[in-house]
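Example 316.
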Amino acid sequence: MEKEIYLAAGCFWGAEHFLRQIDGVLSTQVGFANGNTPNPSYEQVYTDTTGYAETVHVRYDPTRVSLLFLLRMYFKAIDPTSLNRQGNDHGTRYRTGIYYTTPHDLPFIRFALDEEATHHSKPLCVEVEPLANFYPAEEYHQNYLINNPDGYCHLPVQLFDYARNNRDLDTAHKTEQYQLLLRQIDALCQGETDTLAIRANTCALLHETFHFWWTGYYRVENNELLLGPFQGPVACMHIPFGAGVCGTAWKEKRTLLVPDVEQFPGHIACSAASRSEIVVPVRVDGTIVAVLDIDSQHLATFDHCDSYWLEQIATR
Ligand code: SME
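Predicted structure in complex with methionine sulfoxide:
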């Protein structure tokens, strides 16, 4: 599985070198983002009149590294309170920015920014925008510090060791747990054809492994969602099509990650203790027949690592 994010962190030579060290980053490419002239050259961007930010396109595997971890690392490499200046480099081309290609990343970006803001007394001035455009920089800018080990770098070299030596252990651990869980489900349900029995044990295994607040299924029956099986406190029994997180996941035919349930319009609060949620559609021959719904007592418990593995589980 692969996801992407575009990060502007001052001079892209050092920024790319830093980001490519992080475990789970699959590839990096430097270029110019969110400016207003087609096909800009480095010289044009250098005039600081094109609106472009020097940016690193980061492709990563969300089952190895979360967006939250990537952004926490990113904040180690920038001064997020400095406007249009990083190190000795200044100009709008050196602004800091997080440019996303899917609005579904936005809650995670906001979460990371809010967390980072608590470490500063000045307001953050990191730009957060959808990616409007991106043009790869000329070839000699790619992997610049690998090809020019003594080249200019606005970041201290210790930061590169820091990036190499830190792993997103939470995501790595979660992936190991899900892999084990999948093997358990397959072993337990080998030869079993009754979906109710399979789902009941899947809930139990998920709940026992991760100690979630609530783990369960809602089944599509008579054009609504009907409760069961589940583990956890009592829950509402009927959810209409398009209602709440569950009904929306069914309607939109996609997994929904809700880092903060209070921010989800129409969220159905079965329990006041639930703070974040993930809902994964279960399909048979392409038709949604149920949803797998998991609630956590903590904010932002679920990310694309969970959606990847829970989507595998939902095929069982
Ligand atoms: N929160 C869900 C309702 C089900 S409970 O979480 C168990 C929703 O908004 O659809």
